[in-house]
Write a structure and sequence with these properties.
With about 375 residues, this protein is of the alpha/beta class. It has a domain of about 220 residues: NAD(P)-binding Rossmann-like Domain (Rossmann fold), CATH 3.40.50. The protein contains 12 helices and 12 strands. The longest helix is centred in the first third of the chain and has 24 residues. It starts with 13 loop residues before the first strand and ends in a 21-residue tail after the last helix.
Length: about 375
């Protein structure tokens, strides 16, 4: 990794170190920052199975973007990377993030999401303590988390920033743990942090193990579209480009030490999501063999499957003026259209990394594709 000699004032006001920048949300964030000339960006990513640098092809050659392959568990490498880059902010997205994979292998989630976050916090604290008073005042550590830390809702109600934590899976428990660590580094050591908890993201460049891309790609292959249980589990859906706009508002204008919930206010049952995607596919690419929704199959539910998530985004809307631009229908149409026209990106993944097999059954005998975030 080469070193720049100019200061932030001589290039761009913000120098942002993004962990997990080759992932779905991380890559969308970096594209947004570079395309809108908001910051100089260093992408730090281990490049695990879901990390994909081709998601950043459009900005890879930009002079204000750099990439460093590194593991957040590697203290010396991360320390050197932070010291060399001199960030004005760290946006922490590096995480194992799939519930079903956490059921199959929880230890990897503890190592990355809990121990890795702790390591990064301590290194950020070391760096922050050596900054000038002015630089300390403007520095931020932004931890990007999930609404799953709050547990499961009934038929009514919304998650707010005051909702008690009640994680139900190894994944959500690991993210809840990391949230608590971030808050403790603020209250104990004074590290200036902000936390965001978001609802289910969707959009282009989403790894195909997740519900929406998996449905689209299975449909193109005329494979079954399995849905857990009766398909009545509800999620609040947020288009990824709306999410990254919110992240930037929080890190530049949010109150230090506070949490902001980010949701799309677009609740849908899993069955509604799948049926809507099927109908868009039939409209954009009809198949001679019949309707895509006829491929739907109901399969045994996931262990401990939370019934409903729904975010109250009042705080970020009132304090920072953010609102989502995409409705669920407009965002889903954009997403389906993107997958239909970008086989170059997803075909290598389907061929080499993930072909749609089911995960998270505890028993590994099932072979249906998994269908939820």
């Amino acid at each position: 990794m080469s070193s720049r000699t100019d200061s932030p004032a001589e290039s761009r006001q913000h120098r942002v170190l993004v962990t997990g920048g080759a992932g779905f949300i991380g890559s969308a964030l970096i594209r947004y920052l570079i395309d809108h000339e908001l910051a100089e960006v260093l992408n730090v990513d281990k490049l695990t199975y879901a990390g994909n640098l081709t998601s950043l092809n459009s900005i890879a050659s930009d002079e204000y973007y750099r990439f460093q392959q590194a593991d957040i568990l590697d203290a010396q490498v991360i320390r050197d990377t932070i010291t060399e880059f001199c960030p004005t902010a760290i946006m922490h997205l590096a995480a194992e993030s799939h519930v079903d994979r956490s059921i199959d292998g929880p230890m990897g989630f503890i190592e990355t999401n809990v121990v890795g976050t702790c390591n990064l916090l301590q290194l950020a604290l070391e760096y922050w303590r050596n900054l000038s008073d002015e630089a300390q005042d403007s520095f931020r550590f932004h931890h990007i988390s999930t609404d799953e830390v709050y547990g499961s809702l009934g038929a009514t109600g919304l998650f707010t920033e005051q909702t008690a934590y009640d994680p139900r899976s190894p994944y959500s428990a690991s993210k809840a743990s990391s949230d608590h660590l971030v808050r403790s580094w603020h209250h104990t050591y004074g590290l200036p942090v902000v936390i965001t908890n978001c609802s289910n993201n969707y959009g282009p460049y989403h790894f195909p193990e997740k519900l929406i891309p998996l449905i689209i790609l299975n449909a193109l292959d005329r494979k079954p579209l399995p849905i857990y249980g009766t398909g009545e589990n509800v999620r609040d859906w947020l288009y990824v480009d709306d999410h990254v706009r919110a992240l930037w508002e929080v890190i530049t204008r949010g109150q230090v030490g506070e949490t902001y919930n980010i949701g799309g206010n677009m609740e849908r049952t899993n069955l509604e999501v799948v049926v809507t995607a099927c109908d868009i596919i039939d409209e954009l690419r009809p198949h001679a063999e019949g309707r895509t929704r006829d491929l739907i199959e109901f399969v045994p539910d996931r262990p401990g499957h939370d019934l409903r998530y729904a975010i109250d985004s009042t705080r970020i809307q009132e304090e920072l003026g953010w609102t989502p631009k995409e409705s669920f229908d407009s965002g889903l149409r954009k997403t389906v259209n993107w997958y239909l026209n970008n086989e170059w990106w997803w075909a290598p993944i389907r061929n080499a990394k993930y072909a749609g097999q089911r995960l998270g059954t505890i028993s590994t005998s099932a072979n249906a594709g998994q269908l939820d975030n």
